[in-house]
Amino acid sequence: MKRFGFHESPVLSGRPAFWRARLVVIVLMLGFVALAAKALTLQILSNEFLQRQGERRYERTLVLQASRGKIFDRGGSVVLASSVPARAIWAIPEDFHKASDPQVAQLAQLLGMKEADIRQRTRDEDKNFVYLQRQVALDVADKIRQLKIPGVQQLPETRRYYPEGEVMAHIVGFTNIEDRGIEGIELAFNDRLSGQPGSRRVIKDRLGRVVEDVQAVVPPVDGQNLQLSIDAGIQFDTYAALKAALEMHKARAGAAIVLDVRTGEILAMVNLPSYDPNDTAQRTGQALRNRVMTDTFEPGSIMKPFTAALALDSGAITTSTRFDTGNGRYRYQGSLISDVGHYGVLDVGGIIQHSSNVGMTMISELLSSQAMWTKFSELGFGRVPQTNFPGMASGRLRPWQRWRPIERATMAYGYGLSVSLIQVAHAYTAFARNGDMVSLSLLRREGQPTSVQVYSPRVAQLMRGMLEAAAGPDGARRAQVQGYRVAGKSGTARKIVNGQYSKTKYRGSFVGLAPVSDPRIVVAVSIDEPSTGGYYGGAVAAPVFSDIVSSTLRRLGVRPDAPVDSLVAVADQGGHTR
Amino acid sequence: MIRVALFLALLLMASAISLVTVRFQTRELFVASERLKSQAHELDTEWRRLQLERAELARNARIDSLARTELHLIPVTPDRTIYLQESPPPADSSPGGRP
User: Fold this and answer.
1) End-to-end CA distance of chain A
2) Which residues is A451 bridged to in the sheet?
3) Which of A185, A229, A252, A555 is the most buried (most CB within 10 A)?
4) Residues in chain B within 8 Å Cβ distance of A69
5) Active site residues of A
6) Chain A, 255-284: which have a CB under 8 Å from a chain B CB?
């Protein structure tokens, strides 16, 4: 082959067509213009749209769930309420119809529902979201996941759980399905218990892993934990004692409260009938009533000490002033006031001890309505107690200007006004302390409580002596506690039925304090409509008081202040029995 | 002149590669920290569950019935208690219900 140089190539010998070169250049230029135009549209014109699309594919906003605070008893070790994760099971009806019958049967069994029920719920194909059941436990939810039923999905949720159940039901209350407080502490302190959910915006890779935070994370704020003043042990003892009494006397309802006299903390508060807050079906009707706080009643004889103390404090009477109650019948302002027995001549201690209505009427004659009203108001009757709790009742104490003359007498022995059990127990702290009423608290208290002076210390001490006699061998002796000196007053109030005082329906109550030498607790018990085994407060409520006091003082580690015949011998010299 | 340009080009390469590596490491560490966070969350949940389980087992009602029926215990009374003079019970106002 003949070799020649490039410029001598025969191909180049012919004159090249100039237009072809032009054409190539133009086509190339057009190509570049097209590219530039495309780049322009992508980078500038539809930039926003594309970025949104990208974000939609890779960026996610995650909600960071905050957990609701726990509720503890005063010791801090007993959990009264806590949230645990759970799942909501929901279905897409259209897909769910492909599920086979055995699958649905298994699902129904796991959820504790009827097959027909599930089918019924998912009948409407237009819906695309149907809850089958909410707050399903995690292990059950995992089993359901394994069934791989078409159209069945799960959502994370939390479920509130109350380990102490019906013993604590009225104090702790409960939350609704949206984790919001509905009753009790859960409602009263809902703001503190519930947290703030946080959020974060992230980029996820194709495997769904979080790769990067796009914005600063808003961290979730968990709800605060609460420590109550309630002592789980004392609460249980109170519950057990009251429950036994209710069964024994076939009573309709009952309530009891234990207060710490020194700190004003509520150690226990029991209402019966009760309910299990873990079971939503039970959260209805009468069982929900927090009788200690929301039910008001005519107190009857348990009011007498307040009137007597007022008379002593104002100097209207002294401990040696005598009243002739005669044969227990006394006509006053056109009404007949009667006693249970014939007590003859009594001093104020005797009137309290025998619970003489006639004697109290005679004392009230020496007092003015205004003075009584003022004292009762100071004691907290007729206004809502200053404890943060939902549904607290104020009771009823009419202004003294509107009292009829007879009412001054009936008020003196506890008729014509209505109070709640917590108000009475609160007022008794004045006798248990040096005449000052301590402020109450449902939360564990740090530091000193505030108190209001109502009676003079001397009168408080006198009243303790009278109340001790009233709970002594000649009074409500069933209130007595082995090893401890107790003081208290029983009350039996007739209930009003159809506007008249009933002769068959009563409320027996007992309020007292212990130990008398250095009071630590005030206990109030009320039993509603006892039907067997008596109805007097001294017969039905006093034994409950006794049970509660003995177990509470033992749990508090209070040394007995009454002589005890010891059954145990002491071997060591260091030991000493009392 | 060419040497300097070559040197700078190499430096640029190195820096570019290190940037890529660092970004990769960041993501890996981020994923790891995420995993640990979710683990912490799981442990917290587990702790809540165990705490509840303990509360369930230590319920006063349960202990009371076990003590009475199975162990045949009776409540202590002051006449069966020896109170020591030397060490008066501490003024503990917060006994709490220990489980």
Assistant:
1) 137
2) A438
3) A185
4) none
5) 301
6) 260, 262-263
Q: Are A429 and A261 in contact (CB under 8 A)?
A: yes
At A499 the pLDDT is 76
Please, is A562 exposed, middle or buried when counting C-beta atoms within 10 Å of its C-beta (0-12, 13-18, 19+)? middle
- pLDDT score recorded for residue A293: 87
Residues of chain B found within 8 Å of residue A211, distances taken between Cβ atoms: 27, 30-31
Helix (H) / strand (E) element for A311: namely helix A304-313
Average pLDDT over residues A279-302: 84
Given a cut of 50, whether residue A462 has pLDDT beyond it is: yes
Of B45, B52, B95, the CB nearest to A555: B95
pLDDT band per the 50, 70, 90 thresholds, residue A16: low
Question: Which residues 71-90 of B have a C-beta within 8 angstroms of A?
Answer: 75-86, 88-90
List, in order, residues 6 or more apart from A168 with CB less than 8 Å away: A80, A162, A230, A232, A235
Nearest CB partner across the interface for A575, out of B51, B56, B84: B84
Reply yes or no on whether the pLDDT at A353 is more than 50: yes
Over residues A207-221, the pLDDT tens digits come to: 777 777 777 788 888
In the predicted model, what is the mean pLDDT of residues A119-140? 80
Cβ neighbours of B47 in A, within 8 Å: none
- Exposed, middle or buried, B97 (CB in 10 Å: 0-12/13-18/19+)? buried
For B48, the closest of A82, A236, A557 (CB atoms) is: A82
Inter-chain contacts counted by CB atoms under 8 A, chains A and B: 133
> Chain B closest CA to A568's CA: distance in Å?
6
Q: Tell if the CB–CB gap between B77 and A483 is shorter than 8 Å.
A: yes
Q: How many residues does chain A have?
A: 578
How many degrees, rounded to 5, is the angle at CA A45 between CA A40 and CA A49? 125
Q: What is the pLDDT of residues A472-495, one digit of tens each?
A: 887 778 888 888 999 999 888 888
Q: How much of chain A, in percent, has pLDDT values that exceed 70?
A: 97
Contact B59 A164 (CB under 8 A): yes
**From the CA of B49, how many Å to the nearest CA of chain A?**
7
In this complex, do B49 and A559 lie within 8 Å of one another by their Cβ atoms? no
Each domain of chain B, given as residue ranges in start order, spans: 2-76
pLDDT digits (tens, 9 = 90+) for A309-324: 999 988 888 888 888 8
Quick one: average pLDDT of A164-177? 88
**Measured between CB atoms, does A231 come within 8 Å of chain B?**
yes
Closest CA to A385 of A357, A422, A344, A356: A422
Note every long-range contact of B79-83, with CB atoms under 8 Å and residues 24 or more positions apart, other chains counting.
Answer: B79/A482, B79/A483, B79/A564, B79/A565, B79/A566, B79/A567, B79/A568, B80/A566, B80/A567, B80/A568, B81/A568, B82/A566, B82/A568, B82/A570, B82/A575, B82/A576, B82/A577, B83/A559, B83/A560, B83/A576, B83/A577, B83/A578
Helix, strand, or coil (residue A167): helix
Predicted confidence band at B15 (pLDDT cuts at 50, 70, 90)?
A: very high
